[in-house]
Structure formats: structure tokens, C-alpha cells
Amino acid sequence: MRRRRRPATRPASRRRRREPLxxxxxxxVELALVLPLVAVLxxxxxxxxxxxxxxxxxAHAAREAVRAxxxxxxxDAARRAAEQAGPLVGDRLDVEVTGRAxxxxxxxxxxxxxxxxxxxLVGRPLDDISLTASATMRVxx
Length: 141
Description:
alpha+beta
């Protein structure tokens, strides 16, 4: 009985791939360099979303305040309506009512809100952001 000779090369499944010695851990280093940048970008995106949400809340507060000013001649009615319109902090809210003369005239309300920027790494270097919205309505009573 003759013995078969083994082929000189190993089958493809058993071959070992050799990597150059200088590239071990390259992906880890690249991740370590890029990950902080990605984290800061994500925090900036969250801060922008918070600003957009609060701008919508300020516009809603202005609409509620002008509605209250149109039906009630009390000076503080517009401020109370703006404070109750949403989760805005009342100390940071400024409500200005102008133009209320009588029935049929137009009353205008301007709501200003100082938004605190509290997110780590992104919000700290920024000062408070000032958001403004206004609304006009005809006086009914």
C-alpha cells in the first residue's frame, strides 16, 4: 500500500492570515479619537432640540397670553395665561402687552423667555438663550 503524500499547502480554511505587526489596535485608537467628537455632536443635537421645543412653547404661551388679553382687561391676565400655558419657568418669562384700547382694537403680546443651557460640555460655554414670540388679536370685550 502506497501512502499518499500531503499537499504542500494547507487548505484555505486552515491557513492563517498574517497581519502587519504595526496595525494591531488601530481600530481601538481610531474609536478613542472619534468617540469624544461624536459624543459632543450628539449633545449639541440634543441642545438644539431643547431650544426648538422651548421656542414652540414660547409661541404657544404668546398665543395664550394674547387670547387672555383680548377677553380680559386685567393687566396680569396675559402674564398668568402665559405662565400656565406650559412648563416654562415663570421667573425667566417676560410678557409685554401693548395696544389694548377698546373693543375692536388690536392687542399685541410679546413673550420673551431666557432659556438656560444646562447640557454638559455644550450648554456650559453658552449664555442663556433668549427666545421671543409675539401674537396679535382683536379685542373682544
